[in-house]
Amino acid sequence: MSSASASFPHPLYEEYVLKPFYEDAKKYYWGPMLAANRAHVVMLWRCEIISRENAKALLDALAKVESLDVDQLRYRRGVEDLFFAVEGRLIELAGESHGGNLQLARSRNDLGYALTRLALRPLLLTAAADLHNFRESLLAFAREHLDTLMPGYTHTQPAQPTTMAHYIAGILACLQRDSARLRFAYATNNQSPLGAAALTGTAFPIDRELTARLLGFDEIQLSTYDSIGASDNMTDVAGALSTLGVNLSRFTKDMLFWATQESGAIHIDESFLQISSIMPQKRNPVVLEHLRARISRMMAQAQGITLQCHNIPFGDTQDIEDEIIPLLFGSLETATEVLRLYGAVIDTLGVNVEHLRLRAGAGFTTVTELADTLARECDLPFRQAHGVVSALVNYAQENAIPPGQLSAKMLRDVAAERLDLQLELSEAQMARALDPHAFVAARVVPGGAAPEATAAVLDAQTEALRHDRGWLSDTRASLSAAEQRLGDEVKALQA
C-alpha cells in the first residue's frame, strides 16, 4: 500500500534535492541573480513595460535584499529555491503591485541558464589566469635549462639526447592550446539566453541586446529554443578541462618517474615531501601523487558533465540545471587547485644536471647521429648506414662494451666482418658523432633540441602567453565596463 506525503515537498526530496541545491545557488548564483534582476528592471523600464516608479521600487528593494548577509536567506520549507526566496522578499519590500512585476517577460528557465553562464565566467577566467601563471613558471624553468642534457624517451626507452628545455617546450605547446580551448569555452558561454522566457520568447516588446550589454555578454543566443535547450557551453568547459587533464597527467607520469631514485633526474622541494612512519630514509614526493589524483578528479567531473548532458531532451531539464552544478563548478575549482599547486612545484623544482648529462649518452642514444654521419661522410644510403650502426650496437651489447668505449676502428671492423663494407671514418668523426652535446647542438631545425632552436620556441611561446594575458585583461575590463554601465543605469533610475 502506498504512503502519501501530506504536502510538497516530500522529506527525502527536500533533504537530497531542495536543500543542497539551495545552498549551491547561494554560493554561485547570489551575485549573478542580483545583477540579472537589476538589468531586467532597467530593460523593462527603458522598453516602457513598467513605470519609472515601479522600476525604482524594485531597485530599492533589491538594494535592501543585497544588504542582507546571504546566509540570512535560509532555506524554508515550501520555498522551492533561491529564486522564489528572493522574489518573495522583494514582494514584501516593494509591495505586490510593484514587486510582482519583476518576472514580466521572463521565466525561471532563461534566468536560470543566464545565472549559470554568469557564474561560470569568473571561474573560467580564474582557470585561464592560473593556466597562464603555470605556463609562466614553466617558461622560466625551461630557460634555466636550455643546456641541460637529458635522455629523450620513446616507448618508455631512452631514444636520443635532448634537453630539459626542449622537453618542457613540448609541454608548453600543449598548454598553449589548452589556453585556447578555455578561451573558446568562454566565448561559447558568454552569450545571453535572457529574453527566451520559458521557451518561445515573449510578447512584450523587450530589448534582449540591452540586457546582454548590461550584463557583459558578448551577444545574445538568437534562437530562444537554443537559449533554454543548449548545453554546449557546459560541454565546452568539460572538453577543455578533459584535454588539459590528459596533458597534465602525462607530464605528471614523467615527473613521478624522474623523481624516483632509479631515474634521479629531479629533486622535489622539501616543502612538498613527506616522510614514512617507519622507514627513516624515505622522502616521498607525495605532492605529485596528490596532483595526479586531483587531475583525475577534474577529468572525472568533466566527464560527468558530458555524460549528464548526453541523451536528455533538447529543452529545459533539471539534468543541466541544479543537478549539474557540483560537477560544472567543481571541475573548474579543481582545475584552479591543480594549476596553482603545480606552479608551486615547478617554481621550487631542482634538477640533477650532471646526472642527466651522464644519462643523456647512455643506452646508445647518440647512434642516430652516427648513422647520419655515415650517410654524409661516407656516402652510404641511410638504410645501409642504419644497418651498419645497428650491427655495431649488437656487437657492443654482445661484448658488454659501453657506448663511451665505441671506436672508429670497432665500427670499421664490424662493417667489414658482418656486412663486407669498407668504411673510412676517423676517430675524431666518430667521437663527434657520439657526443651528446654535439648531437643536440646539431638539431637547429625550427623546434629542434639545439639550445638556440629551443630558445626561439620559448620566445614564441612567451609572445603567445603575452597575447593570452592581453585577452584576459581585455575580457575583465569589458566585464568591469558592463558592471559600470549597469550601475550607472541603476543610479539614474534611483535618483
Short description:
The chain has 495 residues and is mostly helical.
What sort of overall outline do the alpha carbons produce when their principal axes are compared?
elongated
Tell me the number of helical segments per DSSP (H or I, 4 or more residues long): 19
**In order across it, which strands form the biggest sheet?**
1-2
Please give the share of residues in helix: 55-70%
Class inferred from helices and paired strands:
mainly alpha
Question: Low-confidence parts lasting 5 or more residues at pLDDT below 50?
Answer: none
State the separation between the terminal residues, measured CA to CA. 63 Å
- Give the name of the CATH architecture of the largest domain: Up-down Bundle
Mean pLDDT: 93
Task: Report on the architecture of this protein.
Strand 1 (149-154) and strand 2 (157-163) form a beta hairpin. The protein has 3 domains: 11-104, Fumarase C, Chain B, domain 1, CATH 1.10.275.10; 109-359 and 456-486, Fumarase/aspartase (Central domain) (Fumarase C, Chain A, domain 2); 367-434. Helix 2 crosses helix 19 (451-494). The model has no long low-confidence stretch (mean pLDDT 93). It has 19 helices and 6 strands. The protein is mostly helical and 495 residues long. The strands form 3 sheets. The protein has a two-stranded antiparallel ribbon.
